Amino acid sequence: MSEAVDVRKMHWYGHYRHTVFNMVQSCFEDDGASGVVLIGIQPTLENVMTCAEWPCIMQDLQAAFEEKKAPFYQKGQRKLDFTKINFKRISIQDLGEELEVSTRRSKQAIIASCAEDHFEAAVAAMRAHNTSTPDGCGKVRRAWATAEDVYGGRNHPPKAAGYAPEADVMERMQREMKEKEQALKEAQEALRAAQASEPASPAERQAVKSLGLEDLTASADSSMYSSRGRVFVKRLEQSLH
């Protein structure tokens, strides 16, 4: 079972939230929509961020209304009616049919949550609806967060068949750092053994090899190694090949 992810603490969520709020306001004020339906495409459990963002955006819209904040209130005056906003989470297979239902009687729909593996199908359904909008139906917009928003263009790390939350990334980096520190410690002990004119043991040779022989021999000419240490590294290189 995946750990709970607090997307509100992540850098991308504020931008995502602002986009959804502005789009809701635009549907009502710019286009005169009679209502707005926010649609979330049902993700798999491996789509950690998509699973977490949907309940948060619903809660944040309700909180904004209750606290008399934008997009519902401007300068203390209510501009939008929260009761005219509905939320639906559906499968990608039902999206095309649902868009027609959700936009009847001049309502508009916003696809506000969608996992990356459903982007193409969701865009196709949205364009098909907007290209030949049925009589009496409003248009469809999209406001979902993308991998570019969430990971800033970096390759997102895998977790099972989906994506790992940022906490998992930090844990992996800390683990790798500890492994490098341990490898360095073993190499230093091997160099100290060489300086004491002790023959290199198989364990010492393996410690240096685990660091990556090319990196270590490239550093052998630097001032951080004693002359005896440099000889030891060269000897290890010969014995390992």
From TrEMBL:
Coiled coil: 166-197
This protein's UniProt keywords: Coiled coil
UniProt entry tagged with the keyword Coiled coil: yes
Protein name: Uncharacterized protein
Organism: Durusdinium trenchii
